[in-house]
Amino acid sequence: MAEDSIRVGVDIGGTFTDVALEHPGGLSTIKVLTNYSQPEQAILDGIHKAAEAAGVAMATIGQVIHGTTLVTNALIERRGARLAFITTEGFRDVVEMRTENRFEQYDLNLELPKPLVARPDRFTVNERVAADGSVLLPLDAGEVEQLVRRVVEGGYDAVAVGLIHAYANDVHERQIEAALRAAKPEMSVSISSVISPQMREFQRFNTVIANAYVQPQVADYLGRLVSRLREQGVSAPVFMMHSGGGLISVETASEQPVRLLESGPAGGAIYAADFALAHGLDKVLSFDMGGTTAKICLIEEGTPKTANTFEVARTYRFKKGSGMPVSTPVVEMVEIGAGGGSIAHIDTMGQIRVGPRSAGSEPGPACYQRGGEEPTVTDANLLLGRLDPDNFAGGAIPLSSANSEAAVDRRLGGDTELSTRDAAFGVTEMVDENMANAARVHTVENGRDIETFTMIAFGGGAPLHACRLCEKLGIGALIIPPGAGVGSAIGFLKAPFSYEASRGFFQRLSDFDPDAVNEVLAALEEEARAFVTAGAGARETTAKLTVFMRYSGQGSEIPVVLPYRAFTAEDRSLLAEAFEAAYTTLFGRVIDGLTIEITNWSLTVMSLLPAVQKAGRHFTGLPLPNGKTRRFYDAGLRQMVTAAEVERSAIGPGESVAGPAVVVEAETSTIVTSAYSVTGQGDGALLLQRKDVGQ
Amino acid sequence: MSTTAIDSQIMWNRLIAVVEEQAMTLIRTAFSTSVREAGDLSAGLFDRRGRMMAQAVTGTPGHVNAMAESVLHFVAEIGRDNVFEGDVYITNDPWQGTGHLHDITVVSPAFHKGVHVGFFACTAHVVDIGGRGFGPDANEVYEEGLLLPIMKLAERGQVSDVLIKLIRANVREPDQVVGDIYSLAACNEAGDRRLQDMMAEFKIDHLEDLSDFIIDTSRKATRKHIAALPAGSYENEMWVDGYDAPVQMKVRLTVEGDRLVADFDGTSGLSKFGVNVPMVYTRAYACYGLKCAIAPEVPNNTGSLEPFEITAPEGSILNAARPAPVAVRHVLGHLVPDVVLGALHHCIPEIVPAEGASALWNIQISARASDPRSGKRNAEVLMFNSGGTGARPGRDGLSATAFPSGVSTMSVEATEHVGPIVVWRKDLREGSGGAGKHRGGLGQTIEIEAREGYEFFFNAMFDRIRYPARGRDGGGCGGAGSVELDDGEVLKGKGRQKVPSGKRLVLRLPGGGGYGAPSQRPREQVRSDIAAGYITAEQAKADYGLADDQER
């Protein structure tokens, strides 16, 4: 019999499928290798193992929550449906012309990413809706009929429909959808006014195309997953983590798979947010570093910051503009090409550069002894004493310092005449600098002062680098939570049911129309609530309204949170004040004399979660007795230091070790620099504090 | 080398992040569409002598060299003894700034521990500067708007009310222009805060050593690249439309050891209209073109720019002296890289692309009620549009993509919210890419109509209508541009014109030139180009020699 108290979170990543099973006795976590041809098999294996370890029967599992990188991979690897795209005559090439910009100014051989739908598969139809939603050119039923026939005869697996200004009036998209369904009921059809009803045609078209591209295979996979679970006796409902950090039903996910793109990272952010709440932290910067990339996210009041557009599948050194824009709600992350596998080289000016090229897990860093010959961040860490060669990944991978040294000397020594250690220091310092710069720019862009934040670090590489990163950013407190290796899967278990419905609906404050606005909001609530109820049932919910506003004449909007209720004409001043407050936070001032306008409306309905259990916090503690020591290179001091080496399990709540120290565990090591000390917390987390803080 | 060398690298890296942050601050707060949407801006850090140490990658090449020179003018004009904490300096002098009145440059001295250590500078294109408005029709710079000589906008933190009043009284959008000037000053402050943090972290009291390191390293790297080029003298010439008469641009590149000189001797004389280019702007784009091909990865600073010596005879259209009109200097400026790259091709074959559309087809639209008594709101709409780039030695050209400019286009949906216009078409212009082993990038077709009850005026600043982009090594020309009404009436490529209510303006943007003989293009690529509609079946026969039996 299924029990509500037994829930399982499953995250499919590029290398591992992580399972976290929550049960009355605690939490049981498992990592199994991802199975690319049959991803659901790895899930079943993982759940089996986790259930066995926890001593619970499969049938008692009450809820399965799933997130996956498979959708992103399908876009990156371009393994998707054979797709037709239908658009307004005159706009066939929007997805090919992109922004008409080169994202790298100095590369004469630049290639732009190719659209998912090639030109011969892009069809146009004579019709036109104006910016205000009025119909300038009606759709001709006869022409639609002919078009549908061509598409059906073309043998496509899926169709995406994106018409100009369809976010303002979806009538023509609906007509085309109906005609397609009538002609071929089993055809997968996605329309832009449902998938991404936001202004800006390139982003919206691209989003609906991405959705249609992956829809058949995602629906297929989720169908298989559910039936395999049933076969194994798991009758529990299956929910999916979406990019915005909430859960949706598997049915919604099958229709709108583009919402799953960033589900893994979103789970990580929720995981960090949960610790932020448990530790009573209002302002948190989460830092997740793996083998290839590092991700940074702002978490305020226990909620990760979200955005309504992001970019996937960047093709050129993670450079902004080199990927596909997708406009759906998303936990906003800054991602840079810096991880343990990132390769260092010397550029033409004799300077050390790191990444974004990565040695990945095959062949991996030189020290893995699997044929890798190029120096990576992991090699540099090893040479600087920050990794124990005999105890990496719990001793599973023996590391060769000699290989690291040879790789560093070969590629970074030579003309630069750098010693091995200086070169290794240059590598880690450059990568830390790059991550610090990205974090600083992100907080500044959001009008925040980074020194007032606490960092929460997870992912294999983060505990090695987080303390130095805090030194660079002026951050005084850092939390390394337990279970960080399967953070996303745990995060899934902490997420609310939520759905963000959004609509491009243009309003100048000077001619604000409260009735029209209330009508849009009612429609948004109905839409969002339907999706949330599908999963959350009768659970209590809350709603949050975010509108996107700007001064008339500006090209980008800022998000403004408003109270959610019916608006009246008198609310004009409330809207103006809320905008000016948000504008001041971001830009430090307001501008008099300009009209204010609203472009997008977004309403999130989410289920209320039980209050997070507060962690016992300890800021100072009894010093642990001296034991083992080890030497590592302290970047801030520019010298080798003798550090205490402590097992993580040895640091109990309220026990401290002063830096320099290395805290070791099976999955990773935490470096505590000379400027910081570490104290065990009630929930098993480590709190690193700068020694001058709180004294 | 010791860890000090690593520290210098880290600081250099940091400074590039600092100026990037400075630029981002400007993009997010600016009003000017061309700044926000198109990145028509620049931001950088200079040492106290005015040498450029770092410049944001964000931004457009037109400002690269120009701003580097501009700060030297500020240093000379303000005088070292007259620099105080809290000062802010300003100019839009085309010959001391970045080439036309619409670009305002703001320079703020940076102090550390009370000592003057350097300058932050930034430039942005403002929405209006008075005069005739943005267009090529003036005959002297005086008609083009308000000129602010190098002067103090603020002294010791006190903003000059007189200057602000004067600016407000002379421009059409005073709130936005003054707002942009404050944005410029604020972005320098943002950069300064980060600089202070860095100097404290690395415990340095001045920037001179770091500046020497950055500039020397960059100069050495650039000179090394130049020294690797075959010595000799290489020439090229190119005709373009100009305003009232065609313009010939000529260049002679001389490579001698680690020196590279580009001399534009023989180029046409001044135009009576505002397409003339001040030397700073010519230098900026010539340098950009050369740098792309020769030393693309060296960051921009005084050291990496210095080795490129660019000259043009005074009084030529590429070295216009005061009081020549220069408002739309970008049109010819954008064509300068094609000229220098064409010469460089003789020096290093198989590197540089064929000629492209190059000059942007920006269009400023003024929508007006057909009946002035109707009470309908007037609106100004600005669009940025790009033709095709030239094919590369190993690749096709890029369709509808800006080169050399670094701008982006705006969303049609967003544009239609700005003013009462309908863009009926904005798609690739079939058949406009120059034929070649590698095909030139396609131009685009744009159709614009005023909404019911409106008509509109537009300022044309378009080139490559009479003289299309030429191919290279046997490649064909790109399609020439055209400006027409939908009834076939041909309009001018430059100057202010009217599109009556109910008529559509049809712009056909030029394509890029092809590279290599079309007969060498693999037949399956020719066939797939037909299938995609990039070329027509007739072109496949006429230009590529595709035989009838090869069509399928």
Radius of gyration of chain A: 26 Å
Q: Summarize the main sheet of chain B.
A: 7 strands, antiparallel
Largest sheet of chain A: 10 strands, mixed
Number of strands of chain B: 19
Low-confidence stretches of chain B: none
Beta-strand share of residues of chain A: 25-35%
> Which consecutive residue ranges of chain A, at least 5 long each, have pLDDT under 50?
none
For the record, give the distance between the C-alpha atoms at the N and C termini of chain A, rounded to a whole number. 54 Å
Shape of chain A: globular
How much helix is in the residues of chain B?
Answer: 25-40%
Give the overall pLDDT of chain A as a whole number: 92
Instruction: Compute the CA-based radius of gyration of chain B.
Output: 24 Å
- Please report the total strand number of chain A as a whole number: 36
- Tell me the span between the first and last alpha carbons of chain B: 64 Å
Kindly state the mean pLDDT of chain B as a whole number? 93
Discrete helix count of chain B: 12
Estimate the strand proportion of chain B.
15-25%
**Count of DSSP-assigned helices of chain A:** 16
**Oligomeric form of this entry?**
heterodimer
Q: How does this structure look, described?
A:
The complex is a heterodimer of chains A (about 700) and B (about 550). Helices cover about 30% and strands about 30% of the residues of chain A. Chain A contains 16 helices and 36 strands. In chain A, the strands form nine sheets. In chain A, strands 13, 14, 15, 20, 23, 24, 29, 32, 35 and 36 form a ten-stranded mixed β-sheet that branches. In chain A, a hairpin with a 3-residue loop joins strand 1 and strand 2. In chain A, about 55% of the residues are buried. Chain B is of the alpha+beta class. Helices cover about 30% and strands about 20% of the residues of chain B. Chain B has helices at about 5-30, 35, 65-80, 160-170, 175-200, 210-225, 280-295, 300-305, 330-345, 410-420, 525-530, 535-540, and strands at about 40-45, 50-55, 90, 105-110, 115-125, 150-155, 160, 230-240, 245-255, 260-265, 310, 365-370, 380-385, 420-430, 445-450, 455-460, 480-485, 495-500, 505-510. A seven-stranded antiparallel β-sheet of chain B has the order 2-1-5-4-3-6-7, with helices on both faces. Chain B has a four-stranded mixed β-sheet with strand order 8-9-10-11. Chain B has a four-stranded antiparallel β-sheet with strand order 13-12-16-18, with no helix packed on it. The mean pLDDT of chain B is about 95. At the A-B interface, helix 3, helix 7 and helix 12 of A face helix 1, helix 5, helix 6, helix 7 and helix 10 of B.
